[in-house]
Amino acid sequence: VNGLGGGDGAGINETSLKLPTIRRFPRYLKLLHELNSSGRDIVSSAKIADELKLDPIVVRKDLAFTGVAGKPKLGFSIPHLIEEIEKVIYTEGTVTYLIGAGELGSALIGYSGLDRFGFRINAVFDIDPGRVNTIIQNRHVFKLEQLPEMIVPGHTFIAILCVPDESAQNTADLLIKAGISAIWNFTNTELHVPENVTVQNESLAAGLAELSVKLRKKAGTAKLQGDE
Amino acid sequence: VNGLGGGDGAGINETSLKLPTIRRFPRYLKLLHELNSSGRDIVSSAKIADELKLDPIVVRKDLAFTGVAGKPKLGFSIPHLIEEIEKVIYTEGTVTYLIGAGELGSALIGYSGLDRFGFRINAVFDIDPGRVNTIIQNRHVFKLEQLPEMIVPGHTFIAILCVPDESAQNTADLLIKAGISAIWNFTNTELHVPENVTVQNESLAAGLAELSVKLRKKAGTAKLQGDE
DNA sequence: TAGATTGTTAATCGATTAACAATC
DNA sequence: TAGATTGTTAATCGATTAACAATC
Questions:
Q1: Helix (H, G, I), strand (E, B) or coil at B205
Q2: Quick one: which residue's CA is nearest to C6's C1'?
Q3: Rounded CA separation A51/A48 (Å)
Q4: What residues does B184 pair with on adjacent strands?
Q5: What's the pTM value of the predicted model, to 2 decimals?
Q6: pLDDT tens digits, residue range B176-214?
Q7: Which nucleotide minimizes the distance between its C1' and the CA of A23?
Q8: Rounded CA separation B167/A35 (Å)
Q9: For strand C, which residues in window 15-44 of chain A come within 7 Å by CB?
């Protein structure tokens, strides 16, 4: 599969791939692209760990999943790592529809931060007559009712859900009925979906809560010294 | 060890608050508000677990951190839970500045999904002359250079970083120099900051990677049966 | 060879899950 | 009381950290 040698092939073993590892892959990928652009061809786990403030052992274990073999005393081939990590992250052969061209939705249309991961929104939908058939961020906005006929067999369809919290479940139901494979949920609503539909929740609220507690902890330790 | 001294009572013991618990708090809060609006006054851990698809034991352990005592056979007081969870999540006494009024930045200004957490952007800054001194989302955009003079002792200042990846570190350096306490980082750049500055990374790329792998795993198990 | 780095196996740590006692 | 739910202690599971062998 990946040229590098032995038949049994490198390539990712998705079954055992751990969630924290998956979430670190984009960080590796970005760094590797930067190193690559600067003309480097090989990098050590120590170097990566240093740049990303990780433990070198974590890096080695994560990279082991790519199947790319490192060379002792030298490190890992940057192009090979890039190739293999992209294979995991790339949403190849998927069609992505954005639902809800409001504030957050239009931001995602205009957002280029995910381009390097092969991310591309294939069409934009909305239910608001004021938005339907207008151009937002250079993209035509389709009527949501047109979505079902744009879902055909042979591809994986991902819906990015950017509607108001109140309409989240109703819209999800419509998408599920239309045959969507996955929902990337940017609302704060807990979606109820059948087992065969994948949901990825993106919760700003969770991040804000985390930040808030971090700050309070810091303030706490700053004030009451001599504790601990 | 954490004396927290006399006052005990209810209230959160921040020291031992776990990260997964913190990230679940907003989900509890949203549900509790909904139950409260529907006229309920008390709720069991089983009911919460059912609504949020969690294990009831997880819910009880999480709620234990709030210090609110449940009543056997009945459940927990909804208003009390709301009060205590809000104490953890609310960014009280903090001043929040948004840096970068591009696509993502303006989306965050217009986004109301965090209102219930007491979230409010106090001022908006940008470096682009085409944006400075314009009104975006009903908010005046200040010149970034004006930020330092708007940081004064006695408050905690949070910067929401929505600038292009390439200018992320430079902008962070400027914010740190100005005396910011925390950076909510929406860029894909790994920020290098001194120890006393809190960073909260919000990575869309991590979420996309997670979704991508989930989908591939599902497709894999659907296709190759009996493999291993 | 000597040295540095990979790669794997074992130990620790933390979070979830399970079991059960306490209580209204 | 009986029953249901809380709350705590123990067991399991998973991820990180440590130790060390393999290798170029």
A1: helix
A2: A72
A3: 5
A4: B160, B200
A5: 0.89
A6: 999 999 999 999 999 999 989 999 999 899 999 999 999
A7: D15
A8: 18
A9: 44
Q: Within 13 Å of residue B80, how many CA atoms lie on the same side as its CB?
A: 19
Q: Which nucleotides in chain C lie less than 7 Å from some protein C-beta?
A: 3-9, 14-19, 22-24
> Is the sign of the CA dihedral B57, B58, B64, B68 positive or negative?
negative
Q: What residues 65-104 of chain B have any CB closer than 8 A to a CB of chain A?
A: 88-91, 94, 102-104
Residues of A within 8 A of B182 (CB-CB) are 211, 214-215
- Does residue B71 lie within 7 Å of nucleic acid chain C, judged by its CB? yes
Token pair recorded at residue B197: 């500055």
Contact A67, A88 (CB under 8 A): no
**Beta strands A42-43 and A76-77, pairing class:** antiparallel
pLDDT in tens, B8-49: 344 566 667 889 999 999 999 999 999 999 999 999 999 999
How far is the C-alpha of A209 from the C-alpha of A205, rounded, in Å?
A: 6
Q: What's the N-to-C CA distance of chain A in angstroms?
A: 54
